[in-house]
Specification:
This protein is α+β, with helices and mostly antiparallel strands. The protein has helices spanning 3-7, 19-28, 56-63, 90-94, 180-189, and strands spanning 10-18, 33-35, 46-54, 69-74, 77-82, 98-106, 116-119, 125-127, 133-138, 144-148, 155-158, 164-169, 200-201, 204-205. The radius of gyration is 18 Å and the shape is elongated.
Amino acid sequence: MSEYNQTKKFTFEFKNVPIKDLIKHIEKESEYVFFYYADVFDDSKKTSIRVIDLPVDEILNKLFDGTSVSYEIKDRQILLKKKETAPASKAQQTKGKRLIQGLVKDETGETIIGAAIKVKGTTIGTTTDMDGLYNLSVPSENSVLIVSYIGYVTQEVKVGGRQEYNHYIKGGYKEFGGSCGDSIRNRSEESQYGRLGANHSSCRLEGTRN
């Protein structure tokens, strides 16, 4: 935890509001920026919460207690994601499943937070963490990985015999009126993504490294 995480405290109370509204309030009252996919939590459900002088991690613990949502904090960036399933056991891997890991970067070499990694033709998938890394159990070496991120060209990669992968994805966005950050936010409303950060340069995330 950084000094900001330890010193920044919140006091508020909400009753029967969508989780998205709570996230927006935290962003408005702080320097935090949230990253998440729209399917990470069910925003149709309302929640009530009251906090007094609490740091953001304790608020998130209360908010997502008993749910399938986990979080990762890196300075002022917060990644919301679904809790990881247990890695495949050795017995499972001998039946064909394999545990792989990888790193996703853009064409300039910057790591990408929250990129989607899915096995083509299945519901198996995960997202990259705050360092652009992921772990995933795939059915076989014949599986095909689909690597995607808003504003970038989707990439397909056959698993083969490797266990480690470095993905470099290229920007494929089209510029239009408004700031670059506005462009990404507008795109996110039309896609599977929830909110992306508000501060962008050249339509890519900044501050993903220490």
